[in-house]
Structures are given as C-alpha cells and as structure tokens.
Amino acid sequence: MPFLVAACGGGGQIASGPANSDGVSQHYSGILAATEFLVGRNRFPFRLSNMDGAELEDATVQVQFFSLNQEEPVLKGEETAVWRQITRVTPHTHADGSTHGHHEVRGVYVVDEVVLEESGIWRAQFTVTAVGGSKPQVEGLAFQVVETSVVPWLGDRVPATQNLTIHDVASFSEVSTRQVEDHLHDISVAGALAEEKPFVVVFSSPMFCVSRMCGPVTDMVAGVQERHTGNFHFIHIEPWDMDAARNDGRLVPASEMLEWRLPTEPWLFVVDSQGRVSARFEGLVTAEELERKLQPQ
Questions:
Q1: Starting at the edge strand that comes first in sequence, how are the strands of the sheet with 277-282 ordered?
Q2: Residue 9 pLDDT > 60
Q3: Residue ranges, CATH 2.60.40, the chain
C-alpha cells in the first residue's frame, strides 16, 4: 500500500486552534479518503475533521497541490473541491410495530480531476470558507504519488472472477450482508466478461465495513442499477470472508478482494465491453459521479 500521511504539518503537531461557543475546536485537518494516487489524472477525495472528531461539511474549499520533490515546495496547480454526500435511509421497527426510516449522511470533498505530473511526495493545502462565512484554520496533508497502480487502473483488463451469484447459493445472506435483497448478484464478473457487456462491480460490505462508506455506496449502486437495466450488468462482491466475520469476528480478505489486490473498501469499477477499466472509485462515490461514467463518451 502506498505511503500516506493523513494530516501533516507544523513539525507533526496539530494546534488546538480557536473554539466556538460550545468549546469545539475550529482547527481542522485534511484527511485523505483514498490510498492510491498515480502519475496522471486523479480523483482526489478528502475529509476535514477537527480534534473532537467533528467534520466540516459543505464548505467552499480550494486545494493547492505542491510537489515536495525539490529543495523547496513547488506549486503545481490549484483546484476547487466539491462536497459530495449520500443519504442512506435504514428502516427501523419500533416495539409497537411501526416503522420509520433512519437517515444517515456520509460525505467527502472531491477534486474531480487533478493532474499529478510526477511521482514522489506531494502536499495539499486548503483554503476554506465555511457555511456562514467563517474561515477556519485547516492543516494540509501529504501524500505519495506512484508510477504503477496496485489496484486495476484505467485501461487494465480485470480478472475473470468467479464470484458466487444468487444462482449458486440457497439464500441471499450467503452472498451479501445487505439487509435488503437486491439484483446485484445475478451474474459473476466472469459471466459478464463472457457476454462482452459493460458492467459495474462494487466491493463493499454493508455489515462489516471498516470505512463506514460501504452501506451507502452499495445502496447507491442498487439505485443506479434500476435506471440502467439492460445497458450494464451490476455486480456486488463482499470484500471480507463472511464466515470469518460472522462467526469469529475477524476481517479476513475474501479471495475476490485478493484477486483484485484491494487494500481497502469500498471500491467501485466501471468495466467496458472489452473487459477494461473505464472508471474507478475508492471510498465514497455518489450516484451523480457514477452516472457520468455510464454515459457514452
């Protein structure tokens, strides 16, 4: 896995910064929401969090990118980040039998495309204006840019994975930890490749997710599938061995996760009819972002 620094600066110390009337720190740090950045065009997702764990949402954010491969930092570009979020509605049943939905929001800032022109260590610096006009202090972050991808990259052929489908098992729970049954398990990756039909594959575990992004992303993919029936196959694969997670409380990478060399979850790939990656997303991705990649180029 590439080296990364989630929040870096000031000799490794993060100042407490000013506080609001509730005593909550108004000093934030940039935190990467992805692990792999390559020479060339990249999606750059991140969060802004303070020392109390509170996140700054829906702010106006400018990001400056510096190469740290020379004696002095060199500014290579500046981009605008967009706040993107997913709202997940989880049904909750009360003792009296009534049911209502719990709304859970997950979000990240995303620079949709930044060109990182050389390998090595880079730094992102943030200029932030919060809702209401305040300008909180925000610590930058350092990250590594590499020449070669560990995970399948744009243009790479994907493995012909023989993941289990709903036709191979007795119950939905054997292929998914999602509470709601879906149609994301009708075909394997190998089957989609054999049909030479484009597909979307998402590696996520709604129940055993480390990143807390898997449930919302899986729900989003199921929703997008409803609008693209017939044009694409949509495939969901659990990244962790479900027996080990359910019975032993251990997160053991599933064979499919190892085959695709995934260091984290969730990951989402759009694969063309020739079996090559046309788009990929690590972490939280919204329906708007995915829909754009499903349109004819």
A1: 233-237, 199-203, 267-271, 277-282
A2: no
A3: 10-145
Q: Mean pLDDT over residues 65-88, rounded? A: 94
CATH number of 166-294: 3.40.30.10
Return d(Cα 297, Cα 284) in angstroms, integer.
Answer: 23
State how far the Cα of 294 lies from the Cα of 126, in Å rounded to an integer: 31
The model's pTM: 0.85
Q: Peptide bond before 266: cis, by omega within 30 degrees of 0?
A: yes
Backbone angles phi, psi at 183, to 5 degrees: -115, 35
Statement: 10-145 belongs to CATH 3.30.930: no
> Are 28 and 48 contacting, i.e. CB atoms less than 8 angstroms apart?
yes
pLDDT level of residue 241 (50, 70, 90 thresholds): very high
Domain with CATH 3.40.30.10 in the chain: 166-294
The residues that bridge with 79 in the sheet, in sequence order, are 63
Q: What is the pLDDT of residue 254?
A: 97
Structure tokens at 48: 């802004």
Using the predicted structure, report yes or no on whether residue 64 has a pLDDT greater than 60. yes
